[in-house]
Amino acid sequence: MTEPEELTRMHQTLNYHYPKTYLNAWAQGVRTDWAEFLDRLFLAEVPAHLGDGDGDGVVLDMGAGPSICNIIAASRWSSHIYLAELLEGNRKEITKYLNSEEDAW
What we know:
Blueprint: H1 4-26, H2 32-50, E1 55-62, E2 78-84, H3 88-98
Helix pairs in contact: 1-3
């Protein structure tokens, strides 16, 4: 069994390195098929199951990661989007983006 101290060190390492590594690996460009899927999801499938929203629907993204790229399409259906993220490093990246900081992704 892993010792608590080792788990703490692993979490701190992940928290520090994961956000930039993820962004560099997955957010360099927008995959057309993924963008089309998200558009279809929030323009057709979500309204079909949950109603048209009229901007009043609520979206909660659990485990949002360090970028809004996977949830931004939800803004077509809702003006109420909440992000929940465990890793402080990921939350910092989102905050930098929201604050238009110079080193934001």
